[in-house]
Design brief:
By secondary structure, this protein is α+β, with helices and mostly antiparallel strands. The protein has one domain: Pnp Oxidase, Chain A (Roll), CATH 2.30.110.10. Helix content is 16%, strand content 31%. It has 5 helices and 11 strands. The strands form 3 sheets. It has a 7-stranded antiparallel beta sheet. Strand 6 and strand 7 form a beta hairpin. It comes from Acidocella aromatica.
Length: 178
């Protein structure tokens, strides 16, 4: 028999991809980083990624002002750090310093890459049509970096309220896509 699911828990079952770390850097400010799981691919070439960043988050103002960010995919080994990053604010915390993340210079954006990430995606805001209504930014990835040392690292997926899952077994099936 099925049971009612409270609507505020729906997102726990629909999260589309891995938890990412969004880095921003406003002018004359320290770089900031926040975990984010509300994102999705919109297009492939060029890569367009839609992201929801709540306007109450410190990163929202920097992203809106600069139109730039980095989306970094952390390995599962950083799950405690990812959770801690989400439980404090960049308004009063130097998150890179407190959580010992390595900021690296990006090629096309001011926001830093994260040295401990599996992948870093330099992004520029492409569309803010839904920003006012839904806090949704559509970003174009302009440069991508991969950490070869983390080739086999597992990614984490946020399921709400401190619950994460780790990637499981990879399955390969025939596909006409590249």
């Amino acid at each position: 028999m099925l049971k009612d699911l409270p609507l505020e828990r729906v997102y726990q079952f629909i999260e589309p991809g891995p938890t990412v770390l969004l880095t921003t850097q406003a002018p004359n400010a320290k770089p900031n980083v926040m975990p984010m799981s509300w994102h999705m691919m919109v297009d492939f070439e060029p890569p367009l990624i839609a992201c929801v960043v709540n306007q109450s988050n410190h990163s929202f103002a920097a992203l809106k002002e600069t139109g730039q960010c980095v989306l970094a995919v952390p390995p599962a080994e950083l799950v405690e750090t990812v959770s801690a990053l989400g439980n404090c604010t960049g308004n009063d915390t130097d998150k890179f310093g407190v959580y010992s993340l390595t900021p690296l210079p990006a090629a096309h954006v001011v926001a830093p890459l994260i040295g401990e990430a599996i992948v870093n995606l330099e992004c520029k805001v492409k569309d803010t049509t839904l920003m006012g209504t839904y806090n949704l930014f559509v970003m174009q990835c302009v440069k991508a970096w991969v950490n070869p040392k983390l080739h086999d690292a597992k990614m984490i997926h946020h399921h709400g309220f401190g619950h994460f899952s780790v990637d499981g077994e990879m399955l390969k099936v025939k596909s006409k896509m590249r």
